[in-house]
What we know:
single chain, alpha/beta, Aldehyde Oxidoreductase, domain 3, TIM Barrel, six-stranded antiparallel sheet, 14 helices, 16% strand
Amino acid sequence: MGMELRSLADVAAFRVDQTQRFHSATHEEIAAGATADIYFVKTLQVLRHLGLEEKRVTAEIFPRRGGVLAGVEEVRQLLEGKGVEVWALPEGAEFGPKEVVMRIEGPYGRFGLYETALLGMLASATGWATAAREVKDAAGDKPVVCFGARHVHPAVASVMERAAMIGGADGAASILGAKLLGREPVGTMPHALFLIVGDSVEVARAYDAAMPPESPRTVLVDTFKDEAEESLRVAAALGDKLEAVRLDTPGERGGVTPALVAEVRARLDLAGYGHVKIMVSGGITPERIPELSAAGADMFGVGSYISRAAPIDMTMDIKEVEGRPVAKRGRIPGRTPAERLERVL
């Protein structure tokens, strides 16, 4: 699909094969404007009728609340080659409520169709990045890995995990999410492996034998028996090669608690396995991290807290038309002072 949807006739002619596709938009459909709110197509058609489609405007984007910006790179790629100029805060930058995070200048007809898409790109990614920053701030120097891909549609899982790393997460489990930032995915092993094999020590030994040396030996210890007991069994089997044990105790058994972490830490130390770190996952939030960290947790796998983060609403206002300051009621006409913006396109 190479054309843009720039009239109601284009929209009427647009066909979707509902029997042989996932429900997510393709890159080509996004670029064509197929994810746009229909009134932007109507707007272009009216402006074309009036001969105003190429009228130059300055548009500013601002958030409803503060956070950590992500999604700028996608917006840049969406608008590349459209004949517009774009300024933005850098990805990963913190911003305050209603601070201008992006400014677009150029003929309205070149970018107006994409308002829905670019606001969505910024809103979702920024919400995820902000949640990741909250987690990382709570964890301090201890690593945080995003495990949230299973909680969102696969079409946006990589967007979410990339945004989490922009926000401060030290790694991501999904392959594409990590690769988008030039990193390698980080992960341990699922309970399914243990249930199929039937014994934690057998899984640990098989993992050690099958995985390349650079793959960290981090082993789940909550599948079959008491976590402290399993930690000692696995540590005895792998010795110095065991980097960490992972606690992911389900809520049905009380979840991962500070007391559990403290006991596992103490028993490993007493048995001479002080080098073995403890990774915790399962319902981890910024509020839980300080106690878990104080009890001995060394790494945090965080999923739903990041993946369920609400988007940070973004608004785009036209502030100049052909250099003349304008604004709708309630807003101040003309460019908003925004010294931190950098040219990105």
